[in-house]
Write a structure and sequence with these properties.
single chain, 62 residues, alpha+beta, 31% helix
Length: 62
Amino acid sequence: MKKRTGDPWIPAPVYGRSLPEFTVNLIVRDLARSLAFYRQVLDAVVHYEDPDFASIRVRGLE
């Protein structure tokens, strides 16, 4: 179920074309808790976050 109420931060086709050839996509039950883990344990940088999607960078990988 989509939780975001407004427009996306970037249109999906544009975002898809901006990604490198290899990416990792994780589906999680609790996004806020997962992002806290990625920040604390993996030193992730969050580029974008809304209620049901986040884009992060970990050690140069997005």
